[in-house]
Design brief:
CATH class of the largest domain: Mainly Alpha
Number of strands: 4
Bound molecules: heme C
Radius of gyration: 23 Å
Low-confidence stretches: 1-10, 28-36, 88-94
Distance between the termini: 64 Å
Oligomer: single chain
Strand order of the largest sheet: 1-2
Strand content: under 5%
CATH topology of the largest domain: Cytochrome Bc1 Complex, Chain D, domain 2
CATH superfamily of the largest domain: Cytochrome c-like domain
Structural class: mainly alpha
Largest sheet: 2 strands, antiparallel
Shape: globular
Order of helices and strands: HHHHHHHHHEHEHHEE
Number of domains: 2
Length: 327
């Protein structure tokens, strides 16, 4: 058996075609780069198992996950108002972290401010066992939930013989978290080619965001969430708030000097709704956060005008959840 389409007479034609395709692709890539640079729109369609998402959503609001029945995931991660709680920090003792939004959380490369969890499932495991959060163990949770008839219809939809055990609870909660994507912000529309989606001021803000160097750390689909970086490259600011063990960043996990004050670069998606800012909630407003970033990470004081423009751009990152704009 020969391969007729590879006959010599057809090869030059095929080569020319390949060349044209290559040129077109290069052109398209250059186009995309001139608009998007290192940014990507959030996915509009997700390949998730809807039965698992539904089960995860019910679990998200279930206070029986906490030992003393006082807390559910939603107690600290509200899914209205940008997905955060309104107090500045959460947890007890001196180790209070600012609770991050769970919107778009499935797209992060690691979890927690210091990245100590590799997966969403591992993050849940740590939350359930943590003495300052749920302070619980799985056998107690399984016992409480397995007797609850209200979970039965959801379990049946997943198939016969499914038991609400630790593994399934983590799987379902994680799948629900992966469903919390907020596409169709004005910036996404701009990235997809709608040049009118941003105002002149917002476009100037985007240009500044790139030329100043913010996008060297805040990039990709989340404008963050894909690397660790030191907070305070040009000095630890604000120093008076960097006082507790939580402020050491990854150092508290690795004990390596170079990891001191190193944190996951947070996503800036929906950032206008997620005040206060930073791992310790040290900045109350977006204006403050932008000034601190510019000073601490880039060694540069912004003019009021520049700061306004960057903030205006950041406000175009507010997306939609379940077809409704986040507020
Ligand atoms: C008592 C408040 C509280 C409760 C209850 C709580 N969390 Fe959190 N959550 C936080 C805080 C504070 C952080 C940040 C802690 C850190 O970074 O060390 C966090 C971090 C996270 C993160 C990491 C986000 C990121 O960007 O890295 C995820 C995911 C998460 N929580 C999911 C959940 C889920 C799912 C539940 C329920 C099983 C839950 N949380 C219950 C307060 C809470
Ligand atoms: C060298 C890397 C780097 C650069 C450059 C950088 N950032 Fe950040 N950014 C971070 C890190 C790390 C944090 C988290 C710091 C913390 O909470 O301790 C952060 C946090 C933020 C936050 C707070 C987000 C939240 O949810 O709490 C905002 C807003 C922000 N950056 C905006 C900017 C802007 C605007 C610029 C450019 C002027 C910029 N960043 C430049 C690494 C960087």
């Amino acid at each position: 058996m020969g391969r007729p389409f590879m006959s010599k007479s057809l090869l030059p034609g095929a080569r020319a075609l390949a060349l044209i395709v290559l040129l077109l692709l290069t052109f398209a890539k250059a186009q995309a780069q001139s608009i998007g640079d290192s940014f990507l729109p959030l996915p509009q369609k997700l390949a998730l198992k809807s039965e698992l998402v539904a089960l995860g959503e019910k679990l998200f609001y279930d206070t029986r996950l906490s030992h003393d029945l006082s807390l559910s995931c939603a107690s600290c991660h509200e899914l209205t108002r940008g997905g955060i709680d309104l107090r500045d920090t959460q947890g007890v003792r001196s180790d209070r972290f600012n609770a991050p939004t769970l919107f778009n959380v499935g797209l992060h490369f690691k979890y927690f401010w210091n990245g100590r969890a590799e997966t969403l499932e591992e993050q849940i495991e740590l939350t359930v066992r943590s003495p300052t959060v749920f302070n619980n163990d799985w056998s107690r949770i399984e016992e409480r939930l397995q007797g609850d008839a209200s979970y039965r219809p959801l379990l049946q939809r997943l198939g016969s013989g499914k038991k609400l055990n630790a593994e399934l609870i983590k799987k379902a909660l994680a799948e629900f978290e992966r469903s919390l994507v907020t596409p169709d912000s004005r910036f996404d529309r701009y990235l997809r080619g709608d040049k009118e989606a941003l105002s002149h001021k917002e476009k100037s803000g985007l240009q500044l965001f790139k030329s100043l160097g913010c996008s060297s750390c805040h990039q990709g689909a989340l404008l963050g969430g894909n690397m660790f970086q030191k907070f305070g490259i040009f000095g630890r600011i604000p120093a008076d708030r960097m006082i507790s063990p939580r402020d050491l960043g990854r150092y508290s996990i690795t004990q390596k000097e170079e990891d001191r004050y190193v944190f996951k670069v947070p996503s800036l998606r929906n950032v206008e709704l997620t005040a206060p800012y930073f791992h310790n909630g040290a900045a109350a407003t977006l204006h403050d956060a932008v000034s601190i970033m510019s000073r601490a990470q880039l060694g540069r004081e912004l003019t009021d005008d520049e700061r306004e423009q960057v903030v205006a751009f950041l406000k175009t990152l507010t997306g939609e959840w379940r077809g409704r704009p986040l507020k």
